[in-house]
Structure formats: C-alpha cells, structure tokens
Amino acid sequence: MGVTIRQVTNKKELHQFIRFNYELYKNNPYSVPDLYDDMINTFSKEKNAAFEFCEAAYFLAYKDEKLVGRIAGILNHRSNKIWNKKEVRFGWIDFIDDLEVSCALIKAVEDWGKARGMNQIQGPSGFTDFDAEGMLVEGFDQLSTMATIYNYPYYPKHIEKIGFEKDADWVEFKIYIPDAIPEKHKRISELIQKKYNLKIKKFTSAKKIATEYGQEIFKLMNEAYQSLYNYVPLSQKQIDQYIKMYLPIVDLRMITLITDAEDKLVAVGLSMPSLSQALQKAKGRMLPFGWYYLVKALYFKRRAKMLDLLLVAVKPEYQNKGVNALLFYDLIPIYQKLGFIFAESNPELEMNGKVQAQWDYFKTEQHKRRRAFTKKIN
After folding, report:
1. Which residues of 263-276 are buried (b: 16+ CB within 10 A; e: fewer)?
2. What is the Cα–Cα distance from 320 to 340, expressed in whole angstroms?
3. Model pTM greater than 0.85?
4. What Cα–Cα distance (Å) separates residue 67 from each residue in 5, 27, 255?
C-alpha cells in the first residue's frame, strides 16, 4: 500500500502528532524531546500569540495503517509581508527512512500552501524565530539542546532528493568557560564601560526585572535582530506572553543587562543551565516525575556542566563596540562559580560575523550546523 496523509482534526490526532517525534527518537542518545505541554500550547490558537498573524495545518502520514511521519504547514502572513514573499513554511517534520513518506509529507504542505496562493516552500521553520528552526546537517553525534531540532542523518538527504536547495545555514559552537576573564577581554570591557558610561545591572527579583525591563528586553531583540534572515518583529501580544513564560523560571544570576547613563537598555545576555539531559529523563512529560528532573537541573547544586546561551542582543548603535565583552565580563565569574565547563551557543547564522567575533577570546569548537531549505512549488 502507498502512503496516506491525514490532516489533524482532533485532540487524539494532535496527541499522536506531538508524540510521534518522541517515539521515533526515544532510543537516541542525542535527541532532546519537547515538553508535551509546551507543544500543546504552541499548536493552540488560544495559547500561542503567533496565531495573531499565522495560520497552520498539521498532517500525519500512514503506511499500512502505521503512523510513519508528521509535518506542520505554516503561513506567517507578517513574515511574507515584511520580506515580500509568498512562502509556506514546513516545520515539526519527522519521518521514517522512506522517500515515499517524506515526499508525501512535503507535498501535503505544498498543496495546502498553493491553495492559499503560495509559490515557495521553506523550512524547517516554526511560527516565529522563538521556535526551533533549521535541519541538522552536521553534528549528529552531539547532544541537542532544548532550543534546537535534532534529526537523523537521512533527513537532509531526503530533502535534497525532493528538490530543495540551501536557503540559509546556522552554525553552533561549544564555548569553553575560561579559568579567568581573558586579559584583552577584560581591558575592552573596562574601557567601553567608562567610554560610554555603561552600567551592569543585576536583579534578585523576577517580578522586578519583568516590571522594569521586561518590555525593553524584547523590544531590544526586535531592534538587534531586525536585519537577520527571515526575522519577524515580536508583536506586543507575543512580548507579553514571553515575559510571563520565560522571566519567572530563569536563574537571575545568569541574566545581565547593560544600560546607558539614562538607564536605557543597550544590551542583554540571558543564559541558563542546560536542560537537555533533564528533558531526556522526563521523556517529554512534566508528570509524574518530569518536573523533578527539570527543577534539579535549574536549581540544584549538582546541575549539568553545560549551559545554554539563550539570548545575546545589543542595540544596533552599540554593536561592534565591545558591549558583548562587557556582558561576559560579568557572566564568566558566575559561570565559574556555578561549575559550568562549557556553553552551547545555539544557532548563529553562518554569515553573522558580528556574533561569532564575540567568541574570539575563548576556546571554541564549531560542532554543529543546521540548514533551512527552499524550493519553488510546482
């Protein structure tokens, strides 16, 4: 029998859609499962603020009545308007090593997008830049992170056979925490702090940082990232949602804000202990005991030796002036005190020299690469 594609229409099918990834990768030591509740919220029109300007459809692939693949089709109308495209995105794609299955999944999204006037298909992408994007093409033997996609090596081979071409690449670095702040790094930090009258701000209250700088942190992101590949500025509804989602759970010692003489935000660095191993132990579920592994990873002394650099953003007029160095001038002693050995940079566009230059004073290893693909819809 051939492949049958069915669009998700009820809660049971959405459950199968979300858990298919876990079943396909449950014995893989490098894959990090998404939290089920997070995925439910992501795919919910009521919970995900991106549906303010997005629409989506989810598809399941069956062969011999067995579930063998999944894919999401996404229209980000704001992105298409900003970048002047007629593009449908594919995301959350997973499939067995069967070209007939991957072809059928892609065709389902192409047909869905074409019926809505689209002439291009691109992915893997999510609703927004806060969703994981890019298919792994190098680093299949490296532990994934909670912010990225892990996939088997056959995935990109299938995508290329279907006719896709490279649209953009991201690289990822393992950044080793030095024993001391590099001397040159220290000199630059102290110099630019005096030259531009900059201040390092720390908080001990999540409520206080959310009240005083929550809005500014995400507005700064919109400024700093506006020229990057396919970036879509966060809406006010999204900003409000992310403040509630992220600021209450982060270790405030690992958030550094840089402000100017008027207390205006010019840079932010946000990192957290890696949750990769905790999510593997939780098996994508908070209950019955998944919450314990996550709390342990975040707050117990015997946490993972790896940390995730989730966010580094610098106001455009301060970029290339050493402000990034000032962020890590504050953070490096904290990383040392907490016992971290290395950090995961998470994806950085390969052409973004400004971002990669900030690692010049560290021992690094470029250990992963991921790719967004594109092709015309026939």
Report:
1. eebbbbbbbbbbbb
2. 27
3. yes
4. 10, 18, 42
